[in-house]
Design goal:
By secondary structure, the chain is of the alpha/beta class. It has 15 helices and 18 strands. It is about 40% helix and about 20% strand. It has a seven-stranded mixed beta sheet, sandwiched between helices. Strands 7-6-5-8-9-17 form a six-stranded mixed beta sheet, with helices on both faces. The chain has a three-stranded antiparallel beta sheet with strand order 3-4-18, with no helix packed on it. The structure holds NADPH dihydro-nicotinamide-adenine-dinucleotide phosphate. The site of NADPH dihydro-nicotinamide-adenine-dinucleotide phosphate has 26 residues, from helix 8 and helix 9.
Length: about 475
């Protein structure tokens, strides 16, 4: 049975282009029975998949990567229409799926265990696949987040059932088709479109799903963690963020100001790594704000299919209302420093908005807005910067701007976050680990370590007596 058959049931969901509010496609949602059938097929495919020779499993993943590459423009255009991502970003995202598959295609032949010296025999360890892995993907980065889960999971010998977000299922569904085209056996990677409360919940409660990889809100992550406890199910959680961009007085201020806009406006701010809190040393605060304003006003907010567009719309009308509630609709007095422009008319547009914070207690300073809104606050010295950066429940990423190498290292060690960058805003490379401290999550994706979270270590002792 193919993925299309899996989805031939019950309710339908209209996928809307967030830049035009037009329906792009109608997707059939799987119900509980169809979800169970897909999980059963994934489980049945598990035995034969783990028996595929490591080199052949690697070859299949490389072929999958090549097929993604040959459909890169199609996938990118689909994401522009479905998620409102700028075409430049969408091409990068499809390319990221290709690269992550290619990176982990080397893993099956390198999943080495250890030989441990013991008395009376030979002791060896094996990295065994877990079984079926459930991946729950949010709407903000539908392609990369799917790839970060599925590629290492498959490489380690697991089968995968993947639930895209209701709002953005199209590229995931296409990736499921491309996997079959690349020669992955039926059932090894299955995309199941449906609701979080149905398909996602079933991944948590179904005993055959041995691990959940979840990216999304902290509240749903907490719920999944509670549910997983019933079966001691493995979990990786990538949750929210409220990352700090810390700018010291010895920084290259024009460079810091030029880079700051896209650190919170990329993907219209719907980015768990968004540097949505800017901390600026007090003696350069005014100068930074002047440079920053010019830079924000220069950002092109426009139809995401245009090559020049740097920021598109928000994902939905509901998300725009959420974002608004932090600025116009806030019960607190919100001090807007300046705003950029956004198109009017159809589409879920919201302008780049820079807010002056007056302390660390305001809602816009503390909560994840998940939109093109940043709050700026001065700090006094290094200790104050670290204390303010850490005054949050989150700990995903952050940036430090300084020319002092010692300070860069001290502050990097002092900030409680999983992924920091100095004099840049890069967070994610497929070859390096990514994940959060504190309530930003559990576990690490990407890089060499991700494979460990898709395997269990087995120890075998062989007596020589
Ligand atoms: P959710 O956490 O609700 O959604 C993320 C994914 O989880 C979706 O695929 C969703 O399915 C699924 N899901 C929802 N409920 C359950 C459940 N009970 N069991 C299993 N899976 C479930 O995020 P929202 O879309 O509601 O976004 C709300 C806020 O969360 C944002 O404003 C932002 O602050 C944060 N967020 C953070 C992300 C990150 O990258 N860390 C990503 C997305 C959101 P479906 O959508 O189909 O219902």
């Amino acid at each position: 049975m193919s993925e299309h058959d899996v989805n031939m049931t019950v309710s339908e969901h209209d996928v809307v282009n967030p830049a035009t509010e037009q329906v792009v496609q109608t997707v059939v949602q799987a119900d509980l029975d169809r979800t169970d059938e897909a999980i059963a097929r994934a489980e049945a495919a598990g035995g034969p998949w783990r028996e595929v020779a490591p080199a052949d499993r690697g070859r299949l993943l490389r072929r999958f990567s090549e097929v993604v590459d040959s459909h890169l423009e199609e996938l990118a255009q689909l994401e522009v229409a479905n998620a409102g991502h700028t075409i430049g970003n969408a091409r990068w995202e499809a390319g990221n799926v290709r690269d992550v598959l290619n990176y982990y295609s080397a893993a099956p032949e390198r999943l080495v265990g250890r030989q441990i010296p013991v008395a009376g025999g030979l002791d060896v360890t094996f990295k065994e696949p877990l079984g079926t892995v459930g991946i729950i993907v949010p709407w903000n980065f539908p392609m990369p987040i799917a790839g970060w889960g599925l590629a290492p999971a498959l490489a380690a010998g697991n089968t995968v059932v993947l639930k895209p977000a209701e709002l953005t299922p199209l590229t995931a569904i296409r990736l499921g088709e491309l996997a079959l085209e690349a020669g992955l056996p039926e059932g090894v990677f299955t995309v199941i479109a449906g609701k979080g409360s149905v398909v996602g919940e079933r991944f948590v409660t179904h005993p055959a799903v041995r691990k959940i990889c979840f990216t999304g809100s902290t509240s749903v992550g907490q719920r999944i963690m509670r549910g997983a406890a019933d079966q001691v199910k493995r979990i990786t959680l990538e949750l929210g963020g409220k990352s700090a961009n810390v700018i010291f007085d010895d920084a290259d201020l024009p460079a810091a100001a030029a880079a700051a806009p896209m650190s919170f406006l990329d993907n219209a701010g719907q980015d768990c790594c968004a540097r949505s809190r800017i901390l600026v040393q007090r003696n350069v605060f005014d100068r930074f704000m002047e440079l920053f304003e010019q830079a924000v006003l220069g950002v092109v907010v426009a139809d995401p299919s245009r090559e020049s567009s740097q920021m598109g719309p928000l994902i939905s009308s509901a998300q725009r209302e959420t974002v608004r509630s932090y600025v116009e609709g806030s019960a607190e007095q919100v001090d807007v420093a300046f705003r950029g422009k956004a198109p009017g008319g159809d589409g879920f547009w919201y302008p780049p908005t820079v807010v002056l914070a007056h302390g660390t207690t305001e809602r816009v300073w503390r909560e994840e807005v998940f939109g093109p809104v940043v709050a700026v606050l001065p700090f006094e010295d290094e200790a104050d910067a670290i204390a303010k950066a850490n005054d949050t429940q989150y700990g995903l990423s952050g940036s430090i701007w300084t020319r002092d190498v010692g300070r860069a290292i001290r502050v990097s060690r002092g900030i409680q976050a999983g992924s920091l960058s100095v004099n840049s805003h890069s967070s994610v490379r497929y070859s390096t680990p990514f994940g959060g401290f504190k309530q930003s999550g559990i576990g690490r994706e990407l890089g060499p370590d991700a494979l460990d979270s898709f395997t269990d270590v087995k120890n075998v002792f062989i007596s020589t007596s």
